[in-house]
Design goal:
alpha+beta; Endonuclease, Chain A; 3 domains; 4-stranded mixed beta sheet; elongated
Amino acid sequence: MAREAWDLTRHQHGVVSSDQLQEVGYTRQAIYHRIRTGRLHPLHRGVYAVGRPHVTDHGRWMAAVIACGAGAVLSHSSAAALWRIGSEARGLVELSLPSLSRRCRPGLQIHQRPSLRDADMTVELGIPVTTPIQTLIDMALRLDRGGVERMVNEADKYNLVHPPELRRELDKRIGERGATPLRQLLDRRTFRLTKDELERRFLPLARQAGLPVPLTGQWVNDFEVDFYWPDLDLVVETDGLRYHRTPAEQARDRLRDQAHTAAGLTQLRFTHEQVRYEPAYVREILAQTASRLAISTK
């Protein structure tokens, strides 16, 4: 009994295969006996949950990888769920095989991907899975721009891959499906206007929103600001290189915002991308702010 207890703990995430059991001395009859007595619970052909029929998501993913055999890796939405950057789709475990094998398992969605490289695969918590970068590339084909951006932000937050590193990797994957929308997103989010171009695009928006001509390049509360309306106590700052701002730059932004708030200023912050690609939105926010401030100053 002691030997059996030790053997049955040789599993990952509560999952074990018949091959693993046979390697430690279990015969087919011994395995069938443990299935009948409730010590093993079939999940897939030749793959069992140990001790109880229900497993965690990690156990479910591990069982799926084992069921698909050598070379199988968790991928797409299932990989995104494992990396905590997305949700699993349709209740199916998704896997990729770097071969043309036509293996089929109920409840599993298997992608045949002979072009998948060793560098695109890794192991996380004992589970073979596509790397965070490969997972982002795979999912970029399925999601809208907002969904892709959320995944990139989550990957950055969890230190899985930072945007500069991701952008460098995408430069090596010209023509690969999924890489293009990711590259476009990163390029747009790190878009930066020159000072003259920023003023040329922003000032007409402010005028159309009902604001007078602002002061530019003024020092307010010991910080140089982009646009300043002293009669309205309004400051507008614009940010570029959203993904590349260092911790020191972010800390300075907080100090700047706190100083303006403490001085009673109304402050707005737009990205260069918004000024360039979303002028209607910028104009609307400026108009609403101008209307409120005009009322408050009467």
